[in-house]
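Case study 2.
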Amino acid sequence: MLKVIDRNPVTLFYMGRSPMGILLYPVHCFLLGDILIDTGTSRAGKNLMAALENRRIAAIVNTHHHEDHVGNNRALQERYGIPVFAHPLALPLLADPRLNRLRPYQRVVWAWPEPSRGTPVGDRIDTEGFSLEVIASPGHCDDHICLYERRRRWLFTGDLFCGTSFSYLRSDENYSVILETLKRLSALDIDTIFCSLKGAVANGGEALRRKIRRMEELRDRVMDLHARGTGAPAIRKRLLGGEGMMGLVTGGHYSKQNTVDSIISGKRPDGIG
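Prediction:
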């Protein structure tokens, strides 16, 4: 499934796998001028290629290497003969996506991307009257970047923002680093956030600050209960409730318990970093 949303001069492509009409964890990519920011999932590849048929694309910028953001890199490179810009740490994973070791649910929902040729992104990308500042934005993953159009006050956040609430964390994410990165980004003058999950978010600066406040409040409540001797599973149940289907379907890769464990440890729940 793919839906094209015109927010002139930004075009949003909203896509995902939709068996029996049920959309599974959608993702957006964005066209600004002749720059395509991310390429979405290969599960919607045919629809995306058709939607881009009569559009000019000079380059792709990947916000990070995850399969739902780079799924159509290869097909678009072959069609247009264009570069793919990404953080240097992402380049080996673009060249060999199998290094990413997708879990079963990721393969079902998004599928393996085809290999693509990446080029290290610089400090800025200019396109048809727009200038995107490249901002290293770790936390979701080490190779994550955000793109800021200062004159328009637009921030393209990849998977870093994803709404103002916070319950679930991947086992390879870092709660503290996400929070610090968001706080750094909040110093920017932001009108609209273009989020890979939520699409165009109005009053983006306030939305970002609201998320930061909620994350700080959750962190403080978790650490208070931890200092009182409450165990991590009991903290999760008290503050975030039961895991529900998400933790089960992902085999614990994406769970509320990861959030609590990461806050307490100050590092990724899987012990990396």
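The first strand starts at residue 2 and ends at 7.
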